[in-house]
Amino acid sequence: MEESARGSIDVSLVVVVHGGGASNISADRKERVREGITRAATEGYNILKAGGSAVDAVEGAVIVLENDPEFNAGCGSVLNVKGDIEMDASIMDGKDLSAGAVSAVRCIENPIKLARLVMEKTPHCFLTGHGAEKFAADMGIPEIPVEKLITERSKKHLEKEKLEKGAEKTDCPKNLGTVGAVALDCRGNLAYATSTGGIVNKMVGRVGDSPCIGAGGYADNNLGAVSTTGHGESILKANLARLALFHVEQGKTVDEAAELALNYMKSKLKGLGGLILVSKEGDWVAKWTSASMPWAAVKNGKLQAGIDLCETRTRDLH
Ligand SMILES: NC(=O)C[C@H](N)C(=O)O
């Protein structure tokens, strides 16, 4: 059975964020995770309220999470088999389907900013590795030592993973994951952004779903916007984000669409994960088949946030 949270207030400004599909989050981290996810949703909403676009809002929300070492994106990214960081990110503007993505980038504080620059300043959708980092330098983004992104927790996480599992990966995401955001702005534009360090102990050069348009996310003003998280190989094969929007296109509610897409991935591939979705009408859902998925949503000034279904909290933003 999936877990989910659902919104049903009047249409206008909406931001939903996630902090990754994960196994159970230890009690001592829950408050820090909840605080981070709430801060990101509030940042995205404030951008929308100040007249910013959906793209501005999702980028702003994801930057907050990339800068927060509690999350597996930017600083705090999980380590690959060599103890190094390789990060993936993507962003999409539902107005014209423009999209930008980067993969396997190392010495960059905010991969989502670079993904946005790929979208806006190049004729391409996707840059990888050295080329992406050269483009970052050309755009004036400072290179930072990769050590600045590596935390004690991510080092311990890799050690533990190597002891427990060797190089074999399961199809269940154990990492507190990937971060993502979706938004609807006052002009009816939709956008998504997703950013990640990937999965712990991954092979060097492994690219997951998060930078792949249609898998890690999708946005189309005629349908909705989605950001996904979970087992990347399964999400890629299921094309999870676009699959969820296909169901919206077929007339399903956001809740039904999310459930159908996640169930398909689970039954066909045994892949677990989660997604956030906002429709063009402003209906939203956060749904997951993993044990938990931190999420927060703001719609018309009302903030809701949770980690497990039974733990949803609501308050008004002023
Ligand atoms: N936890 C995650 O969401 C990981 C991400 N989907 C990946 O496989 O790269």
From TrEMBL:
Keywords: Autocatalytic cleavage, Hydrolase, Protease. CDD domains: ASRGL1_like. InterPro entries: ASRGL1_meta, Ntn_hydrolases_N, Peptidase_T2. It comes from the Eukaryota. It holds the Pfam family Asparaginase_2. It is an enzyme of class 3 (hydrolase). It catalyses: Cleavage of a beta-linked Asp residue from the N-terminus of a polypeptide; L-asparagine + H2O = L-aspartate + NH4(+). Heterodimer of an alpha and beta chain produced by autocleavage. This heterodimer may then dimerize in turn, giving rise to a heterotetramer. Belongs to the Ntn-hydrolase family. This is Isoaspartyl peptidase/L-asparaginase. It comes from Mesocricetus auratus (Golden hamster). The lineage of its organism: Eukaryota, Metazoa, Chordata, Craniata, Vertebrata. The gene is Asrgl1.
